[in-house]
Design goal:
By secondary structure, this protein is mainly α. The chain is about 50% helix and about 0% strand. It contains eleven helices and no strands.
């Protein structure tokens, strides 16, 4: 029954009908839940990103499938909490990340420095930031950057190329760089040989 009331309040809020008190809280919670739904349609996500309630915009900003246009709008959101949610998004578009790197709120910059979606060049920019806490987080992220298909570190790729065996090189054992040893074949055992031990 409470769930039905929550969705009814959400419908009223979405329709522009004024709701107050507990009903308003239920309506916001229902819309936040909808914004986090995996099957949310793109058009509905765009619509929810324009809601005045920051909790709803935060939920949209945190979505991994958040469209580029929505990200571009939310990076200028007046609420820092929305920009923090966007900066923490693992699927942050590079152009949006570069704009967020100019944000004046330290909390936004720290979230961006911690984000798995921050491109390497953005982290390099943040590593030179005048605020020590931002620069320190960015340098730490650069030291332990996760290499993905979208942001491959050239130095690591070059090293991996050199480590790959060539057709002319001898086969190597899995441990270290030692050449695999060749062992003598095992002695064959006749299947028709009589057993030497019998169970009582």
């Amino acid at each position: 029954m409470m769930a039905d009331q929550g969705w009814s309040s959400a419908l009223m809020a979405a329709s522009g009908v004024a709701v107050h008190g507990a009903a308003q809280d239920d309506a916001i919670r229902a819309l936040v839940m909808e914004a986090r739904t995996a099957t949310l349609a793109r058009a509905r996500a765009i619509e929810l990103s324009r809601r005045r309630e920051p909790e709803i915009r935060e939920a949209i900003a945190a979505r991994h499938d958040c469209p580029l246009g929505v990200q571009a709008n939310l990076l200028h959101d007046r609420r820092a909490s929305v920009r923090i949610a966007l900066a923490s998004n693992k699927e942050l578009f590079a152009a949006v990340a570069e704009e967020l790197a100019r944000d004046r709120d330290v909390a936004v910059l720290k979230a961006l420095a911690r984000s798995e979606g921050a491109p390497r060049r953005v982290l390099e920019t943040l590593a030179g930031h005048r605020r020590d806490e931002v620069a320190r987080l960015a340098r730490r992220a650069l030291d332990g950057t996760v290499v993905t298909a979208r942001s491959l570190v050239p130095e690591l790729e070059e090293g991996a190329r050199e480590a790959r065996p060539t057709p002319d090189s001898p086969a190597q054992s899995p441990v270290g760089q030692r050449t695999a040893r060749t062992y003598a074949p095992r002695p064959a055992v006749r299947r028709d040989a009589a057993p030497t031990t019998r169970w009582a």
